[in-house]
Amino acid sequence: MSERILYLVRHAESDFGSSDFRAGVRGDQWDPPLGERGREQAGMLAGRLRAMPMPAAVYSSPLRRARETVAAFAEPSGVEVVVEDDLSEAYLGDWEGKPFEEILSTDEQMLHRIRNQEPIWRHAPGVEDLGPFRARVRDAVERILSTHPTGNVLVVCHGAVINAYVAPLLGVDHEMFFVPENTSLNSVVVDGEARRVRFLNDALHLTEPHLFADA
């Protein structure tokens, strides 16, 4: 089987002032739209994606920030987007919708962990457990790849979702080993049953948009 690429793309920047929530399987989950900067980022991502070979399939998390990000590319291009519920961001329990400033202002230990690159997700009250979260993400992505056995696949999702799929491929055992930039492309080579991380956190379309201006 010839190699192909799985692109895992983080959504564009959210409207952090939004108080929108949606009912989810695990509890009410923060579901903001894109902010002004996010809409700009989504347009720049769309320009880059148009400069690339058309993917065989495009999938999205059901959360608004992911759907609005991929729509900037898909709607003008006439591309069908399949929404997959199991690509939703990790459920953060009591931390849903709270800014980092609020979380850190009440817990000095949490600030210490942030400063020392220690994972903090596991400390959120009511958080989705890492093992089941990684399992649902892995199963969703592998199900998508099985449904589309040829061609590249584009998945627009979330930072923790990208970590959940990529970390086991690299032998990383904690929940967040890097923070993907908004709209960054993170790619995995798919060769039969083998998976190899190809590139992480590529946001060249944000820093060098002229490279994709002629698409």
Structural notes for this entry:
By secondary structure, this protein is of the alpha/beta class. It has 7 helices and 8 strands. The chain has helices at 36-50, 64-77, 100-105, 108-115, 130-147, 159-170, 204-207, and strands at residues 4-10, 21-23, 28-30, 57-60, 81-83, 153-157, 185-191, 194-202. The strands form 2 sheets. Strands 5-4-6-1-7-8 form a 6-stranded mixed β-sheet, sandwiched between helices. The chain has a two-stranded antiparallel ribbon with strand order 2-3. Helix 1 crosses helix 2 (64-77). The two termini are 30 Å apart.
Give me a quick take on this structure.
The protein has helices at about 35-50, 65-75, 100-105, 110-115, 130-145, 160-170, 205; strands at about 5-10, 20-25, 30, 55-60, 80-85, 155, 185-190, 195-200. It has about 220 residues and is an alpha/beta fold. It is globular.
Sequence-ordered SSE layout with sheet pairings:
Layout: E1 4-10, E2 21-23, E3 28-30, H1 36-50, E4 57-60, H2 64-77, E5 81-83, H3 100-105, H4 108-115, H5 130-147, E6 153-157, H6 159-170, E7 185-191, E8 194-202, H7 204-207
Parallel strand pairs: 1-6, 4-5, 4-6
Antiparallel strand pairs: 1-7, 2-3, 7-8
Which whole number gives the mean pLDDT? 94
The amount of helix comes to 25-40%
Which band does the percent of strand residues land in?
15-25%
Q: Which structural class matches the secondary elements? A: alpha/beta
* Shape by Cα distribution: globular
Cα-atom Rg, whole angstroms? Answer: 17 Å
Total number of β-strand segments?
Answer: 8
Ranges where pLDDT stays below 50 over 5 or more residues in a row are none
Compressed to H and E, one letter per element, the order equals EEEHEHEHHHEHEEH
Order of adjacent strands in the largest pleated sheet? 5-4-6-1-7-8
Distance between the ends: 30 Å
What's the helix count?
Answer: 7
Biggest sheet overview: 6 strands, mixed
